[in-house]
Structure formats: C-alpha cells, structure tokens
Amino acid sequence: MRTRSLGFFAMVLSILYVSGPVLAHHGNSAYDANKTVTVTGTVTKWQVINPHSGIWIEVKDERGIV
Question: Is the pTM of this model over 0.90?
Fold first, then answer.
C-alpha cells in the first residue's frame, strides 16, 4: 500500500513539474489589460489552427495607408 501511495505522489509531482512551462508559454506580459484599442478595418484572413488562431485585419492610418 505504501509503494502505491508513493508512486501516486511521484506521478502527481511529475505532472506539476512539467506543467510550469505550459503556463509560461501562454503568458500575457505583452498585453496591457487596462488599455482598450479599437480598430476599424477589413478582415483579410481568418486562420483557426491548433493550438493558436489568428485574424489578419487591414487598417488604414490617418493618411490612408494600409
């Protein structure tokens, strides 16, 4: 019984150890959650691919340049 409990404990520790980099991969340090940015443009590409998706938008600046 003690060996089974020790094995389970080792498995849980292993899973917790390897899950740390996953959280680091999905960090949000590049984003300012307190700032809202609104853009108006044309969606030119919508890509849904595992594990990430993306939306490409053509937006014109004040001079009309895309």
Answer: no
